Amino acid sequence: QWPEFVQIKEVGPRDGLQNEKKLVATPDKVNWINMLSESGVKEIEFSSFVNPKWIPALSDAHELGKKIKRNPDVRYSALVPNMKGLELALEAGIDGASVFMSASETHNKKNINKTIDDTYPVLKEVVREAKIAGKHVTGYVSTVFDCPYEGKITPEQVIQVCDRLIEFGVDDISLGDTIGSAVPLQVEQLLDAVLAAYPKEKIIMHFHNTRGMAIANIMTSMQYGISRFDSSIGGLGGCPYAPGAAGNVATNDVLYLMHGLGIKTGIDEKKLQEAALFIQNKLGKPLPSKSLAYAASQ
Ligand code: HMG
Ligand code: MG
């Protein structure tokens, strides 16, 4: 009953680095992303075209877009909050634009400085222009289970946002457990509602591993037929506007799980491990992934 193939989007260079105090030099990022490009991963979210005052760690997005070596088999995407971001991102040569907003009013306000209602017209224009430019567009919805400020978020709140993003023309939706709080029961409740509204192929799950539940939540998602997941190499990362949030589920751990279950990912575990050790070395601290730590100790 498991999917034969699971599609992984590597978000380490974006979600992984956005909250890191230690800045990684642009040439190191270029080398690292080039390593990731050769690992077999089909999509890399390489940066964000946001206000550099808000996210200094990603202020080199434009230069990075110009300098990374493009593998034609990889889609290079980036977060884009508004038209200014889209213009810069297009200039830098993105293949995919990821727009983002929250199902929670307070988190949306803290993260992008707008109410949910005021965000819609901005994203509508970005999605339209990105599609005219021939780009793939993903719509992220954050805090789909719990908000660090408001508590429980209902599936109805999430569907309301998804409906608008789909109406604007996004190709797919990534549902974010921003603070890594969900347990499988919540995943079931959300997917019951979401998959009644949209085909499973359009849905990507984006789990943070704050409380160690991400792998369990991925298993539950696969029971619902979901086969697309976001993950971060080594488990690097966190959201700057969600206090205490840890990194995404580690790509290394997801690969260990998938390959052990006989599910293909197209990704070479060894190459991914090398890329993880490279960035771990640049950051000068161990990354959270357990399978990475084990493999590196052998
Ligand atoms: P704002 O301050 O409300 O924007 O920011 P503004 O339009 O009033 O402009 C203010 C200044 O920002 C101006 O500069 C603009 O030019 C500049 P000034 O005149 O003061 O010198 N500016 C920009 N500069 C570069 N690129 C841009 C841009 N836009 C405006 N695109 C904005 C609004 C959304 C830009 C801001 O709030 C921002 O950058 N927020 C960053 C949010 C962010 O990156 N959060 C983390 C990613 S989301 C996430 O991690 C969740 C996710 O992983 C899923 C999950 O886990 O749930 C996706
Ligand atoms: Mg995230």
TrEMBL record:
<protein>
    <submittedName>
        <fullName>Hydroxymethylglutaryl-CoA lyase</fullName>
    </submittedName>
</protein>
<dbReference type="InterPro" id="IPR043594">
    <property type="entry name" value="HMGL"/>
</dbReference>
<dbReference type="GO" id="GO:0046951">
    <property type="term" value="P:ketone body biosynthetic process"/>
</dbReference>
<keyword id="KW-0456">Lyase</keyword>
<dbReference type="InterPro" id="IPR000891">
    <property type="entry name" value="PYR_CT"/>
</dbReference>
<dbReference type="GO" id="GO:0004419">
    <property type="term" value="F:hydroxymethylglutaryl-CoA lyase activity"/>
</dbReference>
<feature type="domain" description="Pyruvate carboxyltransferase">
    <location>
        <begin position="6"/>
        <end position="273"/>
    </location>
</feature>
<dbReference type="InterPro" id="IPR013785">
    <property type="entry name" value="Aldolase_TIM"/>
</dbReference>
<comment type="similarity">
    <text>Belongs to the HMG-CoA lyase family.</text>
</comment>
<dbReference type="Pfam" id="PF00682">
    <property type="entry name" value="HMGL-like"/>
</dbReference>
<keyword id="KW-0479">Metal-binding</keyword>
<dbReference type="GO" id="GO:0046872">
    <property type="term" value="F:metal ion binding"/>
</dbReference>
<dbReference type="GO" id="GO:0006552">
    <property type="term" value="P:L-leucine catabolic process"/>
</dbReference>
